[in-house]
Amino acid sequence: MLSARGQRLVVGVGGVGLAVAVTPQTSLAAVAGRSIALHTHLVVREDELALYGFETEPELDAFELLLSVTGVGPKSALGVLAQLTPVELARAIDGGDERAFKAVSGIGPKTAKLLILQLSGKLVVAPAARSAAAPDARADVLDALTGLGWPERTAADAIERAAVAAPEAAASSGALLRAALAILGPAARP
């Protein structure tokens, strides 16, 4: 990875720097000079080519499903994933929770209803991701990370990714904390 600015990474591929739009969490986790693996989606428009990158396949799948909803463009879909993990998105859709989309820029009440209506039953999250960590372990780790200075959203995202990546670590607070800290990395210190 060559550089990170806001929600954009410049990634070197075959001697060419490609600008990739990412979520703030992905941008914070990226370290200049280190390699990064992203699952990408190319949006082709008449006047531009835009590349969107995601750390996990479930994020990419959720992004592509969000794009299938009438009135949801790539920037809004990326905004949804900046606020909600794929698991949280699946829960919001399955539960009909329009309030979950309130903080997302570009998604109003009508679009939230449309998202729930059109994506109901379509967003499938792996069973390991659904039961990834015991609620007490997650709460303990979230308290620890926010106590260390990480923003709650960043800490929650790292916990979710750690629980999905290492389901066996999700059983204990200590193992889950170590896995989440490994995801946050030394470059993302608060």
TrEMBL record:
Q: Which Gene3D superfamilies match?
A: 5' to 3' exonuclease, C-terminal subdomain, DNA helicase RuvA subunit, C-terminal domain, Nucleic acid-binding proteins
Helix-hairpin-helix DNA-binding motif class domain residues = 64-83, 99-118
Does DNA repair appear among the keywords? yes
- The yes or no answer to whether the keyword Cytoplasm is present is yes
Task: Tell me the compartments it is located in.
Answer: Cytoplasm
Q: Which Pfam families match?
A: HHH_5, RuvA_C, RuvA_N
Q: Where is this region: Domain III?
A: 133-190
Q: What is its main location?
A: cytoplasm
SMART domains noted in UniProt:
HhH1 (SM00278)
* UniProt keyword terms in alphabetical order: Cytoplasm, DNA damage, DNA recombination, DNA repair, DNA-binding
Q: What is known of its domains?
A: Has three domains with a flexible linker between the domains II and III and assumes an 'L' shape. Domain III is highly mobile and contacts RuvB.
Q: How does it assemble?
A: Homotetramer. Forms an RuvA(8)-RuvB(12)-Holliday junction (HJ) complex. HJ DNA is sandwiched between 2 RuvA tetramers; dsDNA enters through RuvA and exits via RuvB. An RuvB hexamer assembles on each DNA strand where it exits the tetramer. Each RuvB hexamer is contacted by two RuvA subunits (via domain III) on 2 adjacent RuvB subunits; this complex drives branch migration. In the full resolvosome a probable DNA-RuvA(4)-RuvB(12)-RuvC(2) complex forms which resolves the HJ.
The UniProt similarity line reads: Belongs to the RuvA family.
The record's function comment reads: The RuvA-RuvB-RuvC complex processes Holliday junction (HJ) DNA during genetic recombination and DNA repair, while the RuvA-RuvB complex plays an important role in the rescue of blocked DNA replication forks via replication fork reversal (RFR). RuvA specifically binds to HJ cruciform DNA, conferring on it an open structure. The RuvB hexamer acts as an ATP-dependent pump, pulling dsDNA into and through the RuvAB complex. HJ branch migration allows RuvC to scan DNA until it finds its consensus sequence, where it cleaves and resolves the cruciform DNA.
State the HAMAP family in the record: DNA_HJ_migration_RuvA
Q: What is this protein called?
A: Holliday junction branch migration complex subunit RuvA
Organism of this sequence: Agrococcus citreus
